[in-house]
Automatic annotation (TrEMBL), chain A:
This is Gluconate 2-dehydrogenase subunit 3 family protein. Residues 181-213 are annotated as: Disordered. It comes from marine sediment metagenome. The lineage of its organism: unclassified sequences, metagenomes, ecological metagenomes. Pfam families: Gluconate_2-dh3.
From TrEMBL, chain B:
InterPro entries: FAD/NAD-bd_sf (IPR036188), GMC_OxRdtase_N (IPR000172), GMC_OxRtase_C (IPR007867). One of its GO terms (molecular function) is oxidoreductase activity, acting on CH-OH group of donors. Gene3D superfamilies: FAD/NAD(P)-binding domain (3.50.50.60). This is Glucose-methanol-choline oxidoreductase C-terminal domain-containing protein. Belongs to the GMC oxidoreductase family. Residues 112-334 form the Glucose-methanol-choline oxidoreductase N-terminal domain. Residues 422-536 form the Glucose-methanol-choline oxidoreductase C-terminal domain.
Length: 213, 552
């Protein structure tokens, strides 16, 4: 993927005036999450990991955001959202049921389970889920489209965009206390914000972005 | 984990042992008066947000003994608020609530808080007055129903709130009757705010810098806003004039006791049918605080939940519910948006999220095929919130989502605060599921009506043309947003059709009061907190007056 903000790493601001101690603690704790599942079983975990790769494909030339582990961590801590569409069971149950049903659905397709499908087949299955077309009996009490929009894409994308790697990718300034920002108007960048690469000026942006902070 | 201290306030109550946290000094404390459970205090207040906070403050200043309870934590913003969306979810009401109806609400981050200071700790600070006619919308505008309040009276209380919170706003506000100058100068309008201004100019309507409850110049313990843009996750600098750093410290200073991490589960009534106190859960046990008066200020879901949960043999349908309207007529604001990208860099994460607005369609009555009004505002969602918009009705995932998110720094948006009509079928009831205190959780039912839909269609069409007028590309409309909660214990002039009177006093039980967003009979097209605070100040004045006349 071509980087819009080449060389920008929001973590390089960690010791700048834009980060305070609470923020450092919180981000450190998030970056420490990874590795094996602590809540889901092995089969569910494998399915989740494959789903994450389809919902949020990541470039191969950088360490991936451990999405499955972040979702598993949310489940481990049973961190609810403060509301639940009444058609869904509680958080943990919804994910366990949903992943198992998705896998069973894939089994029915060609006997190999979700992880055994090609990327195109996986996408087709996820699209069918989004269109509310899956047939497994689980979806009778939990409409698959509701699971898809409230749990599946919601939990995976919010984990991704809570990660510094994603902030760097989209050119978000990141944490901003105590310094905040000074230049507020259009096309105005504070020196502690990333610079977008103009066509032909990749190197210039990269140089600036290495010294952001 | 080393970040444990950041959530200590969720585990250990801080308002105790005769002291309260000093929100302005790291590790500091201030003395706080305390009352024993068996002392008959003048007022127990349940909830310390936009309604409960100012009321606790003014009643304590008037010399009443006051104990205010909040289920949430007592935060120290300078030490415990991270610049982080996910971590700061600790400010929200994340207990379970079930949502159904044709348009099940998305609550959580978007709707209500649980903290000393209530939802004002994470609100977006937009501080607006109701259009005067809305207080008589049935008589003057032909829809909804009339409030028992007089707009000129309210105008005075609005001014009092704006002075107390040092609202920063423009010298001249383009809509409605004359109002005094805002105490602090307006904030600089950021790039997304200027995009709104250009869109309004393209459409030939007025716009204004948004009056905001964050200071534009130093104030006593508050430094000016540094435009860090994390306002809806809590302000770490204390520039934001939330209840946590205004009404609450003033209340404590005036002699009120605030009990944090104290969940009120039931209001007790005595043999005389009057409220006698509250059962509350704190530090692992249920306790009972005696009181001469009980005020419920838990916001439009928790307030009816508590009143319904307090049903007893004398009041089998819940307290203050002879009209049958407790929990009914839940209103939200529709919160639809139109989004697009600009050629220029916008970087909308800088500054408070809504630095400019237009109230044109609140004050213009012609050219509408619906009742009610809406304001629209410039936007600046942080990354996770923005991704949430993309995965909602836009339904993006996979590479399409990744690509769309890459436009983050060029994105602009206009979002409405749209009036919805009161409907009895929209309600808060008790579900079978129970929370960690063993209390039934709330079931929240909401469906839009045709009028709500027509308003949204009008707004989306208008805002779309606005964005086209400034050459935005890739324009799309977010269809399912809602915000704010109102109306589940409405005020009125007739006990048969309302729960409380103009003084927020319940018709059925004269020493039971309700003072928060739930008393709104109609929702209006502006964010509610300034009106809630104005009503609280009025209620405090009325209580003082009634006490003086021996009518309390
Ligand atoms: C993200 C966001 C942005 C917003 N932005 C704006 C804005 O810009 N402008 C605006 O005007 N409004 C805004 N609002 C709305 C505004 O914050 C609320 O309308 C207002 O705070 C409601 O006031 P309240 O007193 O009714 O309830 P709250 O302020 O929510 O206070 C209720 C308190 O009661 C406590 N409580 C409830 N039940 C119990 C119980 N049983 N026992 C003990 N304690 C209990 C809760 O913990 C809570 O702290 C925003 C809201 C959100 C969520
Ligand atoms: S932008 Fe201003 S009000 Fe918002 S969090 Fe920052 S300092 Fe506070």
């Amino acid at each position: 993927m071509k980087l819009i903000y080449p060389g920008y790493d929001v973590l390089s601001k960690r010791h700048s005036q834009s980060w305070d101690e609470p923020t450092r603690q919180v981000i450190d704790a998030r970056l420490a999450i990874g590795g094996a599942p602590r809540f889901l079983n092995e089969a569910q975990w494998q399915t989740l990991d494959a789903v994450c790769q389809r919902i949020l494909p990541q470039p191969i030339d950088r360490p991936p955001v451990p999405l499955a582990a972040l979702v598993d961590n949310k489940l481990l801590n049973d961190r609810g959202d403060g509301y639940r569409d009444a058609r869904l069971p509680p958080l943990r149950q919804a994910w366990q049921l949903g992943l198992t049903a998705l896998d069973a659905e894939a089994q029915a397709l060609d006997g190999r389970g979700f992880t055994g499908l090609t990327a195109a087949q996986q996408d087709a299955l996820l699209s069918a889920m989004q269109r509310n077309e899956l047939k497994h009996s689980v979806w009778k009490s939990m409409p698959c489209v509701v699971f898809f929009s409230h749990r599946l894409i919601h939990d995976i994308t919010s984990a991704y965009y809570a990660h510094p790697t994603a902030w760097s990718e989209i050119g978000f300034g990141g944490p901003a206390n105590p310094r905040g920002y000074v230049r507020m108007g259009p096309d105005s960048r504070d020196p502690w914000e990333p610079m977008a690469a103009k066509p032909g000026a990749q190197r210039k942006a990269e140089k600036r972005n290495r010294h952001v902070g | 984990m080393s970040d444990d201290y950041l959530t200590d306030a969720l585990r250990n109550p801080r308002g105790r042992d005769g002291r309260a946290p000093d929100v302005f000094r790291r590790g500091g404390w201030v003395p706080m008066r305390e009352y024993p459970d068996d002392e008959l205090v003048d007022f127990v207040i349940v909830g310390t947000g936009a309604g409960g906070g100012p009321l606790a403050c003014r009643l304590a200043e008037a010399g009443f003994s006051v104990v205010a309870f909040d289920a949430g934590a007592w935060w120290r913003p300078l030490e415990e608020f991270a610049s982080d969306e996910a971590h700061q979810e600790k400010l929200f009401w994340t207990g379970e609530r079930l949502c159904d109806g044709d348009n099940p609400l998305k609550l959580g981050t978007n709707n209500s808080g649980r903290a000393v200071g209530g939802s004002t700790v994470h609100f977006a600070m937009v501080s607006l007055r109701f259009r005067p006619e809305w207080f008589k919308s049935r008589t003057l505008l032909g829809y909804g129903l009339d409030w028992p309040l007089d707009w000129q009276d309210m105008w005075r209380y609005y001014t009092e709130v704006e002075q107390a919170l040092k609202i920063s706003g423009p010298v001249r506000y383009p809509w409605g009757p004359k109002r005094p100058r805002y105490p602090y100068r307006q904030h600089e309008v950021n790039a997304p705010g200027l995009a709104l201004a250009r869109a309004c100019e393209a459409m030939g309507i007025a716009w204004a810098p948004t009056p905001l409850a964050t200071v534009s110049a130093p104030r006593e313990h508050s430094p000016p806003c540094v435009y860090r843009g994390f306002c809806v996750t809590g302000c770490a600098t204390n520039a934001k004039q939330s209840g946590l750093i205004t009404w609450i410290p003033w209340a404590v200073k005036a002699g009120a006791e605030i009990r944090d991490l104290a969940m009120v589960g039931r209001i007790e009534t005595g043999e005389d049918g009057l409220a006698s106190g509250v059962h509350y859960h704190r530090e692992g046990e249920w306790r009972f605080q005696r009181a001469r008066n009980v005020v419920v200020a838990g916001y439009a879901i928790e307030t009816p939940r508590l009143l319904l949960n307090s049903a007893n043999s004398r009041y089998p349908d819940g307290l203050a519910n002879s009209s049958g309207l407790v929990g009914k007529n839940l209103m939200v604001h529709t919160n639809q948006a139109v989004w697009g990208t600009l050629e220029e860099e916008v970087r909308w994460y800088k500054g408070p999220p809504s630095l400019s607005l237009s109230e044109h369609w609140n004050y213009e009555d012609s050219g509408k095929d619906f009742f009610g009004g809406y304001a629209f505002m410039s936007q600046g969602p942080l990354p996770a919130a923005w991704a949430g918009a993309q995965t909602g009705n836009h339904g993006l995932w996979g590479q399409a989502l990744v690509d769309e998110m890459q436009k983050y720094n060029h994105q602009v948006g206009l979002k409405i605060v749209g009036e919805t009509l009161p409907q009895e079928r929209n309600c808060v009831t008790l579900a079978d599921e129970r929370d960690e205190f063993g209390l039934p959780v709330a079931r929240v039912t909401w469906s839009e009506c045709d009028n709500d839909r027509r308003l949204v269609n009008h707004a989306v069409d208008f805002m779309r043309r606005g964005l086209e007028g400034i050459d935005a590309r890739d324009i799309w409309a977010e269809a399912d947003g809602t915000a704010h909660l109102m109306g589940t214990a409405r005020m009125g002039s007739d006990p048969a059709t309302s729960v409380v009177n103009a003084d927020c006093r319940s018709w059925d039980i004269p020493n039971l009061w309700i003072c928060d967003g739930s008393v709104f009979p109609t929702s209006g097209g502006v964010n509610p907190s300034e009106t809630i605070q104005a009503i609280a100040l009025r209620t405090a004045n009325r209580i003082r007056e009634l006490a003086r006349r021996g009518e309390l």
